Amino acid sequence: MPENSNRKSNELWPRRLIHVGDELTNPRLVETSDLGEHQQPRYTTLSHCWGTSGIPDGGKTTAETIDKRASGIDLETLPRTFRDAIDVTRRLGFQYLWIDALCLIQGSKTDWEEEGEKMGAIYSNSTITLAAESSIDSQCGLFTNNVGPDEDLDSPTPVTNVLSDGRESTLIFRSSDSRSLKTSNAHLQTRAWALQERVLSPRILHFFDVGILWECRHHYEIWHEPSANILMEQYGYATLDELEQVRKIITDHPFDLPRWVLYRPWFRLIVPEYTSRKLTFRSDTLPAISSIARALQKQTNSTYLAGLFAEDIAFGLTWHPVTRKARGEVIEAQVIGKPRPSWSWASYDTPCACTDIRTSPLKSRITLQSHQIDLAGSDPYGQVLGGRLHIRGRVLQGRHVPGDHHYAGEVSLYLRRDGTVKSRHWNSLPGQSSLFESDAAIEDNTSEIITGTVCLLLCSAEGLDYFLALNKVEEPNVFERQSMFFCRLSTNGVGESNEEWMDWLEYGDEEDIVLI
């Protein structure tokens, strides 16, 4: 196994690790500052589901038990998945293992804030991650089919690794027909927290109920099964090949790439994949993806704004909710209450995506004058309570007309400018590309026109013009997001010549508005 050359300062080391011991000695919790090593210790990490009942008390470190755990941890008190992870770590020849429930002090806000900011480094600097894919909770184990590493396996396959100190370690794999490896039943890949653990880990052993899959930044395979890449299309929304694009951008320092290219995986892959997963607590929406956001911010040197980036704000605001069938489950777009900030996808409990078709830089039609993010704590990548964007741009007046469109409660949108409703409905023209995605079904207005909609022109890309439809609130010039749509204003003939619309797109009067 190649040496992990991406060493970091000890400020990014995990504060605590589990020294796994051996067959004669129990594991114990150690402080990395006491190890006296000049280089970060080599360790494994565990990626797992906590389950609906959470981790049992024996598998959690608290302020009351941390001193006792430093003296030793009785294996019999740990849930099965933790015991399996310790066993596999020993067999791989490593001394140290990181498990969130044991290495973080549960119930300590201070410990979480300090260690949570290092979560990306904890996984990216580990040598290998053990992923309990088919386990629904910590009691199921890595080997959910009850076949452990010492069982009599059919056609066992030994995999031997030479460690940096010259020692050999061997892991035995069960031969498996690739057609029987149903990766779509990976419970772990339905959990939001597990996404950044998967993206940031340099190497992963995925433990499924019927097989083990190896993944690293160069390739992935079921041992002796080259067709595994076909099955991986079932492995969540983003495939391994697609996630590798994300890894290259956030770990390989691609400074020669233009900034707009660096942002693309965030909106095309990460946000759709992440928002299709499940969270126990809505307040974790931004914290659970913060490590990827930090890595991308570092690569782009941009300002992070509650799931968006200031320097790509024009396109970032074009996200829209989606209703789709994911992992066998129909996920309905839904909005609960008044999401704040309304302009961030992270405020909505629904899968979201961007219609990112960019093959060249887009033309921004707005200027972000200033911004204000109301944080729940001190972490700029953590939970937010609200936020304001002061934007200068061009606006159109619009109105909704019920019953003429299959999207969003059968509501259509007409555009008007200078107080005049255009005679042509932009979505009714044959051969034209357009889309109206409402953030929630517009109901109880089936007999009346919904007026007062302001449409903010965000950007133009690939011949399309992107808008936000906004609702006015009580404060002057303050609006909340209603929906996103795009169309081809320059070619749709909505009552004026194309030249007049092109002139408005380039030189129309701008207004100052605030989004909340």
Description:
Helices cover 20% and strands 28% of the residues. The chain has helices at 66-71, 80-92, 100-103, 109-116, 119-124, 193-200, 228-231, 240-251, 259-275, 290-300, 313-316, 498-507; strands at residues 16-19, 28-31, 43-47, 96-98, 128-132, 156-162, 168-174, 203-208, 211-216, 220-222, 304-305, 308-309, 320-321, 324-326, 329-331, 352-353, 363-364, 366-375, 384-393, 395-402, 411-417, 420-421, 435-438, 450-461, 464-472, 478-487, 511-515. It contains 12 helices and 27 strands. α8 (240-251) crosses α9 (259-275) and α9 packs antiparallel against α10 (290-300). With 516 residues, the chain is α+β, with helices and mostly antiparallel strands. It folds into 3 domains: 10-236, no CATH class; 253-364, no CATH class; 392-515, no CATH class.
Output the keywords:
516 residues, alpha+beta, eleven-stranded mixed sheet, 12 helices, disordered N terminus, HET, HET-domain-containing protein
